[in-house]
Ornithine carbamoyltransferase (Micromonospora purpureochromogenes), 308 residues
Amino acid sequence: MIRHFLRDDDLNPAEQSTVLDLAARMKADRFAYTPLAGPRSVAVLFDKQSLRTRISFDAGIAELGGHPLVVDTQVTHFGRGESLADAGRVLSRYVAAIVLRTHGDDRIAEVASHATVPVINALTDGYHPCQLLADLLTVREHCGGTQGRILAYVGDAANNLSHSYLLAGATAGMHVRVAGPAGFQPDPDVVARAEKIALGTGGSVRALVDPVEAVRGADVVATDTWTSMGQEDDGLDRITPFLPYQVNDALLAHAATDVIVLHCLPAHRGEEITDEVLDGPRSAVFDQAENRLHAQKALLTYLLEAST
Ligand code: CP
Ligand code: NVA
């Protein structure tokens, strides 16, 4: 069976833990693992912009002994309407895995359903599961584990990061609270799925409006841009309703004294997070960014092994 990673809950709790353990080992001994030696190639395709995802997959595939093929889809037929099913079939003849950043989750699902190699979600409108593996690795490092820790995500609770925090956090046994203004609440189906997962892991899930209620006593406070890629011209006011959700010193005063702060980057400094917080002692943001590399190397290795 081919194992894809389209959503955070495509790894069950034991599998997620295995990937995070491997990521920690790969971080400690960075060049010791070469499962892509050959070199085997991996296609990394972007329908949207990227800095971290692009470079961390490119570098990570090279470190695994492989050959990264990083492509902006606008210069390919993929970006001008070629059948996604055909693209999935064709690319599978060339490469060991396909990494894709795209718009709708239906697009990546269509590629995956016709691919005969693992397909990895490098961000869609719905989810950003590779980011969450890096975030959970960071929480393990800074908080000594994930089980039972309180994670608050504040801001646009309807976006891809919010959904991934719900699913991946519940999978990791965390108490996940997401808070956003009315109209920017998570998809109820995602909340329901996360609740079901939490029942089995000892975690919990809450979707809130009040940012202070979300952050109270939190071990981890996370946020993200209030305007995701593709939402720039959606006609919604993406500033005013979000102002109470800014991660600043006043909001963090309600968190645990040893709280860490996460942001997937890029940040809109002065909007969803202040410079003082992002550059201050509670920020784990740059460890989090580094951990994209280690987590994705482990994920690729795991999926390739599990698929054979
Ligand atoms: N966090 C993240 O995915 O960054 P990029 O958009 O730069 O890849
Ligand atoms: N929610 C953001 C994350 C960027 C890494 C977006 O989709 O643009």
Q: What stands out?
A: The longest strand covers residues 41-46. The pocket of phosphoric acid mono(formamide)ester (ligand 1) is lined by residues 50-54, 123, 131, 264-266 (CB under 6 Å). The chain is about 40% helix and 15% strand.
